[in-house]
Amino acid sequence: MNDNKPLTLLEISEAADKRLSLISKEFRNGFEFVKNYPRSVTFFGSARTKEGEPYYEKAGNLAGRIVRELHYSVMTGGGPGIMEAANKGAFGAGGNSLGLTIDLPHEQMDNQYLTDKEDFHYFFSRKVCLAFSAEAYIFFPGGFGTLDEFLEILTLVQTGKIPKAPIIMVGSDFWTPLEEIFRKGLLENQMIEEKDLSLYPITDNEDLILKLIKEAPVRFGIKYNENSEKSTKDKSPKIGHEPLGGLFKKFF
Q1: Which of 74, 85, 146, 203 could form a disulfide with 90 if both were Cys (CB 3.0 to 4.6 A apart)?
Q2: Is the CB of residue 104 less than 8 Å from the CB of residue 10?
Q3: What count of other Cβ atoms lies within 10 Å of the Cβ of residue 46?
Q4: How many whole angstroms separate alpha carbon 65 and alpha carbon 34?
């Protein structure tokens, strides 16, 4: 007997309400968590990098220096790999070692070097909070998740949706070929401008990285601009504000 019956419109609407409630809660709790730690740097990178590998050791050393020399908090996704390395470095230096962790069925386990953390169910709300109010973003080599986070933050800065902040790419051998794709595939076809390539310095020089972070303005969050949404709201069709309100109006 097949129990996979199609959902009714009411069941769809109730499920949407529950999800919206959880999403709202995650954003609210995430923003409150981040607000408690002004002056932070967010690390991104592969969850598969192992202790003892060069990028793992470099991430740990860099995070430790950020804590000791700049007195900034270090924030990561709270998992293994580069995230663990950065948290380990910050923890060992006696600083705030923070994790915005994600609930995954088979992969991520929280690393043991977190002094505080906030749990998330949805990737997108977690990603927003990882970007929220950080003074700098440091990207180590990684896979699809790292590339997704890099390109989203790069796009937000390029389009002015968030204030400009250092987007620092550590691992010249890894990131330079990607920049060549940007130059040959995007710049030569006039899909980006030359100045866009200056939004993300590629460097392995830790002294330069610390200098870029130190010179970046402290953001204290992203100011909400009601006017930025006003024009969108004015153009939206007034067919109902509850989830699937238009469908209920149409059928009932």
Answers
A1: 74
A2: no
A3: 20
A4: 21
3-class secondary-structure state, position 64: helix
Its pTM stands at 0.83
* pLDDT tens digits, one per residue of 213-252: 999 988 765 555 555 555 555 555 554 445 444 434 433 3
Cβ partners under 8 Å of residue 180, min gap 6: none
Residue type, 36: N
In whole angstroms, what is the distance from residue 185 CA to residue 175 CA?
Answer: 15
User: Are the C-beta atoms of 246 and 239 separated by less than 8 Å?
Assistant: yes
> Per the structure block, which two tokens stand in for 53?
């590998």
> 189: buried, middle or exposed (CB in 10 Å: 19+, 13-18, 0-12)?
exposed
Contact 123, 38 (CB under 8 A): no
Q: Both tokens of residue 77? A: 């996704």
Question: What is the spatial distance between Cα 182 and Cα 195, in angstroms, rounded to a whole number?
Answer: 12
Of how many residues is the chain composed?
Answer: 252
Is residue 157 within 8 A of residue 219, CB to CB? The reply is no
Whether CATH 3.30.1370.10 fits 28-223:
no
For residue 111, the 8-state DSSP code is: -
> Measured between alpha carbons, how far is residue 6 from residues 34, 95, 252 in Å?
40, 52, 19
Please report, for the chain, the start and end positions of each structural domain, with discontinuous segments joined by +: 28-223
pLDDT in tens, 59-112: 999 999 999 999 999 999 999 999 999 999 999 999 999 999 987 766 568 999
Number of Cα atoms under 13 Å in the Cβ half of residue 35: 9
Amino acid 236 reads S
